[in-house]
């Protein structure tokens, strides 16, 4: 082999190694991608607004429900009786209010101080006002009883999937105590943790490819937000209330990871996503 050819071959191999090495370093240290990403979702805890025995459970575990669908029904007998009692009280207050108002109107037509005492006229006026207030109070009680009866039907507050359902017919549901969870199907997103060296390449609105670990088709998304802070685990107060800083002697300084939220824009047909799945996120240039 001629000396010139050997020199050219050596230069070609050397330049190729440099280019390959730089590309590798740029890809792993600066390119906007990460394997540290996870599918997240909003979870709505469902708790009844009234207490009572569960009369009927209308859903199954992992079932998809629409917003407004009935999830379960609490025994309504007590609340129907409470509504009937409130309506009867309201009717009595209405009759009393009308009677005292008619009495006041009749006495107002008489001459104060001559046919009727001024004090009696004032008392009639106050009695009519009191009856009107009692009627308003009874109206509020009736409306509360009607609301409690309506709340015996516990409905889905979002579109989503029923999860971890352990509620059974006949069990007792306590007001304000969560009995099942509902995964909001409209809130699926990806939280990706990019190294701080790659954050300059992350821009709001940048398209992203999301690859689940199960090898399913690529899911499309866009950068929605970038976190503005993470916890400093080394920052703590010492016994003198001074910052306690541990010295580091490592040769390699590890980059911190910054949370970046990716909004899912397109999920191919047949791809199942579940909260907690891990995935790889690769940003696809500028918007």
Question: Can you put this structure into words, describing what you see?
Answer:
Among the domains are: 33-42 and 187-283, Elongation Factor Tu (Ef-tu), domain 3; 76-151, Helix Hairpins, CATH 1.10.287. Helices cover 32% and strands 28% of the residues. The chain has three helices and 16 strands. It has a six-stranded antiparallel β-barrel with strand order 1-10-15-12-11-16. The protein has a four-stranded antiparallel β-sheet with strand order 2-9-7-4, with no helix packed on it. The protein has a four-stranded antiparallel β-sheet with strand order 6-5-3-8, with no helix packed on it. Helix 2 (77-108) packs antiparallel against helix 3.
Q: What percentage of the residues does DSSP assign to strands (E)?
A: 25-35%
Mean pLDDT, to the nearest integer, reads: 85
The total of helices stands at 3
Largest pleated sheet: 6 strands, antiparallel, barrel
Strand order of the largest sheet: 1-10-15-12-11-16
Order of helices and strands: HEEEEEHHEEEEEEEEEEE
CATH domain class of the domain at 33-42 and 187-283: Mainly Beta
């Amino acid at each position: 082999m001629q000396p010139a050819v050997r020199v050219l071959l050596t230069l070609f191999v050397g330049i190729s190694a440099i280019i390959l090495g730089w590309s590798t370093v740029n890809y792993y240290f600066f390119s906007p991608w990460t394997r540290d990403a996870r599918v997240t979702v909003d979870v709505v805890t469902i708790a009844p607004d009234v207490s009572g025995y569960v009369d009927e459970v209308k859903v199954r575990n992992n079932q998809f429900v629409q917003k407004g669908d009935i999830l379960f029904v609490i025994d309504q007998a007590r609340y129907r009786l409470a509504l009937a009692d409130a309506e009867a009280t309201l009717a009595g207050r209405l009759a009393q209010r009308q009677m005292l108002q008619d009495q006041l109107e009749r006495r107002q037509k008489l001459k104060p101080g001559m046919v009727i005492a001024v004090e009696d006229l004032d008392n009639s006026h106050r009695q009519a006002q009191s009856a009107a207030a009692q009627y308003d109070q009874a109206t509020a009680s009736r409306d509360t009883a009607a609301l409690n009866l309506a709340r015996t039907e516990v409905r889905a507050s979002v579109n989503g999937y029923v999860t971890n359902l352990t509620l059974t017919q006949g069990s007792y549901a306590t007001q304000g105590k969560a009995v099942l969870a509902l995964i909001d199907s409209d809130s699926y997103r990806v939280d990706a943790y990019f190294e701080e060296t790659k954050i300059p390449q992350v821009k709001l609105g940048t398209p992203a490819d999301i690859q689940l670990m199960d090898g399913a088709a690529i899911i499309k998304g866009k950068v929605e937000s970038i976190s503005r802070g993470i916890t400093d685990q080394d920052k703590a107060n010492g016994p003198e209330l001074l910052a306690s800083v541990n010295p580091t002697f490592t040769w390699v300084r590890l980059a911190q990871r910054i949370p970046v939220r990716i909004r899912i824009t397109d999920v191919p047909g047949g791809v199942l996503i579940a909260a907690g799945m891990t995935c790889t996120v690769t940003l696809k240039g500028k918007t």
